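Example for tutorial group B:
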């Protein structure tokens, strides 16, 4: 079964760290072969009954120095790095961004943005241009929060590489102080009720081709389209207001 379907199953932070270690190990192996995954998300993480986790679906992986299409991108929107949404090429750092998203999903036990109502174009712009990231609970341990935030940093140059992530995860495992924090966190959250996350919009979590010229407004037709949408909405609101005044 894939990780996204397992998110509703409450996992201790100790188990989450183990899952992340497995994912980071696979990602480092991919990067060490000079490859970029380009479509990393929780639906592409396979798990067995022992929580051993593996990255799957390398169908659109490319060599790190291989150019991809310059007219669009392929992937699952909430996991696509902002620089890629802005029309820049994929890099190894672009694979690190979704690792941070997966960290959030594991900690919150639900798919990212599953409780939001963003339309696709708004979500694209907020991630790519405004640095949108999900809410982080105050009780999430600082060491976990720090790595997660670094992974989804807006600047790809500031993200850790897969080897550094793996090293940090191992350090969490052997550091007695961090283990105490993990145990304390698990004790306080073990009885928390997990919301049903099976009702999310599957369209948002489906791999698809997205034109970058539309996203970044490089297309003149796209500019006209968005002005049309904006003023159409404004006209409807204005008409409704005038109708209300005249007849009520």
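The residue assignment follows.
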């Amino acid at each position: 079964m894939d990780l996204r379907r397992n998110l509703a199953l409450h996992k201790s932070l100790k188990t989450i760290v183990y899952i992340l270690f497995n994912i980071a190990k696979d990602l480092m192996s991919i990067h060490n072969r000079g490859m970029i995954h380009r479509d990393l998300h929780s639906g592409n993480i396979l798990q067995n009954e022992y929580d051993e986790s593996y990255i799957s679906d390398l169908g659109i992986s490319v060599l790190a120095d291989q150019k991809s299409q310059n007219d669009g991108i392929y992937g699952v929107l909430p996991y696509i790095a902002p620089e890629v949404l802005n029309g820049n090429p994929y890099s190894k750092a672009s694979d690190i961004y979704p690792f941070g998203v997966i960290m959030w999903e594991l900690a919150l036990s639900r798919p990212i943005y599953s409780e939001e109502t963003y339309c696709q174009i708004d979500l694209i712009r907020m991630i790519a241009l405004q640095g949108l990231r999900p809410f982080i609970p105050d009780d999430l341990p600082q060491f976990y929060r720090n790595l997660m935030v670094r992974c989804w940093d807006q600047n790809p140059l500031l993200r850790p590489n897969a080897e550094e992530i793996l090293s940090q995860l191992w350090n969490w495992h052997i550091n007695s102080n961090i283990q105490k924090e993990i145990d304390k966190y698990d004790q306080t959250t073990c009885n928390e009720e997990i919301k049903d996350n099976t009702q999310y919009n599957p369209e948002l979590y489906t791999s698809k081709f997205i034109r970058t010229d539309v996203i970044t407004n490089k297309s003149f037709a796209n500019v006209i389209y968005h002005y049309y949408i904006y003023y159409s909405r404004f006209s409807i609101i204005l008409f409704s207001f005038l109708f209300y005044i005249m007849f009520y």
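The domain at 3-213 is CATH 1.10.510.10 (Transferase(Phosphotransferase); domain 1). Compare this with the pattern of hydrophobic and polar residues in the output above.
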